[in-house]
Amino acid sequence: MVDEETLDGNAIGGLMMAVFGTDMTTAVATCGSCGAVRQVAELPVYMPGLGIVVRCRSCESVLMVFTGVRQVTCVDLMGLSSLS
Predict the structure, then answer these.
(1) CA 58, CA 22: separation in Å to the nearest integer?
(2) Burial group, residue 31, by CB count within 10 angstroms (0-12, 13-18, 19+)
(3) Cβ(77)–Cβ(44) under 8 Å?
(4) What is the Cα gyration radius of the chain?
(5) What's the pLDDT tens digit per position in 25-73?
(6) With contact defined as beta carbons under 8 Å apart, do 21 and 75 qualify?
(7) Does residue 70 come out as left (phi exceeding 0), alpha (psi in the -120 to 50 range) or beta?
(8) pTM above 0.85, yes or no
(9) In terms of Cα–Cα distance, which of 1, 23, 26, 27 is closest to 14?
(10) Closest by CA position to 62, among listed 43, 38, 42
(11) Where are the domains of the chain?
(12) How confident is the model at residue 19 (pLDDT cuts 50, 70, 90)?
């Protein structure tokens, strides 16, 4: 599912810095579906317009979703078993 419109995790480095208060591109994400382990910078990122979707490179499960509501960034990390 990776194509020329797919970005990598570095594209959301600034957003993650604003949300988590530290550089998260080198953080290690573990997929809750297949258990694949990768740095955030290596994950495929999709920015379709209404939000940002981060998927697992191995099984394509949704790991993270970022949306903005009334100048508040909402974060869903339900697809991750860990982020460290």
Answers:
(1) 26
(2) buried
(3) no
(4) 12
(5) 999 999 999 999 999 999 999 997 789 999 999 999 999 999 998 989 9
(6) no
(7) left
(8) yes
(9) 23
(10) 43
(11) 7-83
(12) very high
